[in-house]
Batch of 3 targets.
Target 1
Amino acid sequence: MDYYQLLGVERSASQDEIKRAYRRLARELHPDANPGDPSAEARFKQVAEAYEALGDPERRARYDRFGSSGSRGGDPFAGGGLGDLFDAFFNTGGRAESGPQRGADLEVVAQLTLEDVVQGVAKDVAVRTAVSCDTCEATGAAPGSEVSRCDQCGGTGQVRQVRQSILGQMVTTTACARCSGEGVTISSPCPDCSGEGRRVEEQTYSVEVPAGVDDGSTLRLTGRGAVGRRGGGAGDLYVQVRVEDHPLFVRNGEDLLAELHIPATQAALGAAVGFASLDGEIEVDVPSGAQTGKPFRFRDKGVPRLRSRGRGDLVLTLVVDTPTDLTPEQEDLLRLLAKERGEEVKAPGEEGLLGRFKSKFS
């Protein structure tokens, strides 16, 4: 089994790249996201085993040298049950501190329209996250039972180890394996959360999106991420902003760009033309003889400035449309106009030069 291939990374990948690949796969393959799919659960365990070997630089070095026999193998979920599944999905690594640990940060995407960006909007986003268990009040203990101090670490959540080296005694402190660094043990786990003190549910949060936010921006909702095990604090929720393309407008910084289509008669003679901006109808004064490409700028009709006052501009580019659906009477009028202006046009039914050339040799 190639652990690098399981995680989809190169052997030269950095530790951060390995961590990101593992977290992405863990979310995709987690049993809660694939209920009743044994193949996804099996691969989820394989991915966790691969990360256990590659996520630590020392174990990774042993794996690179000796293969899976040189790293800590085996099933990382053996005997762990639901608690280890939660850790693989929500936690980011080993614990170095005692007591309940903060939950993981989560990400979600918010789809916005250009109108939302210009006006500002309160957007609801749904996220599958860990929330406190009401049955045990986040303690992890069944109602009526108690949480006991861990007898292995004395409630500190940490175990000290002393070893001799050529420099003398060296003391290392690690998280207690029996209580997972929490300092307490539970003899009778809560039946609704299996002793986790939290459950996975879908939550909906309202995000206040400020006017002027750009596509690709990130908004943070403090304390809206996953809660930690057994009373641990909540992480943050990061909202990635995605702005849908608009059929009429294109954003250019804080300006809005659009085309103003008018018929040739209005371009030739001039006209007052209405245009539906995002702020309502505006009037465009088109001078006589206006040509395609002429710009019209309207101040403060663009996108609000996110970190200062005011707005950008609305810039309309004129496009003169040639009529294609003339009635016989309209065609006669245009031929009369061409004659008055001394402009040569085709006679009705007349072929062009290429058509006459083909007819001559056919």
Note: Residues 71-96 have pLDDT under 50 and may be disordered.
Target 2
Amino acid sequence: MKSSMKGGNKERLGVIRLMLAAIKQIEVDERIELDNDRITTVLDKMAKQRRESIAQFDSAGRDDLTAVEQAELEIILEYLPEALSDAEINDLVEQSITATGAASIKDMGKLMGMLKPQLQGRADMGKVSQLIKARLSA
């Protein structure tokens, strides 16, 4: 935050302040100090909100707002763990299916429960969900 202030990067400073405010809000509401896993969850939620906004702005033809949300998303992603590749995600899904013995779409809850801690902040959980549905339907 200090480097953004000194560098005069107002957009970056604004996004960093939004992230800190979201973290602080949870800490105050729940009267706890967040650990790294919980902070990752908060930032992942913020990234998801930006992705949804980008999709809505694109469909409405609002390129100006899409650009703002995309810039915010890129800054938020800098503070999340490195994203997993599609191959790595597929491997984790296959391992989870083997470990749980999942055979139908009814077992999706077990799979998501097992995968979420491993993938939180490192993969778009919506895409993971679609991948699991496609795999279990086949």
Note: Residues 36-60 form the longest helix (25 residues).
Target 3
Amino acid sequence: MLKVFFLIFEPGVAWEKIAQAKRGYAFILGTYLLPMIVLVTAVEGWSLHQHGKWQPTFQKFKMFTDAEIKGFEVVQAILLVAMVFVSAKLLHTASNNFHGRRSFAQVFTTVAYGFSPLLLCRLLDIAPMMNPAISWSIGVVLTIYVLYQGIPRVMSPDPTHAFGQYLSAIFIVTLTSGMVRLITALFLQGTIDYRHSWFTTGIVKLFE
């Protein structure tokens, strides 16, 4: 968890240590990514239970049932994990279109640690009146900033193609994280009732 602060405030040093460690994606997933996702979803779930969420469309606070909160947080956790893997796969494919080939472990490492500022900013959502778009915007800007230092150190692209890969990464992380944020925000803001979809209904029933 503390590593995310080093990535934000001392990105060069943090990325050098990550690159030298050469951890596999299973290790990063189990010891860093999943614990962080569990933390942010648990804290947000606690906030929804205690305070609800302000829905500007209806000008009221929406209180959620325990089953709704558990179902939502499970779905959100799944989406966040999928976001990292899909982004890593897309960036891996895009990077291999340039000269030289990067392993999936290199790309996954870059994306997983690169997304950590965005995940950290999800803690801003504990504020009942926080607009989901604000926490996402701050998080994605920090992610883009962090990736600027991470891509050349971990993925080691050819210098002539490094900026092209960085632009590809910006597009991918903005697109995938934006889609996840949109899906979750529509539920929190009360714009769409996912409770009646076949997927979320099944998740909610597991906790009833």
Note: Residues 66-95 form the longest helix (30 residues).
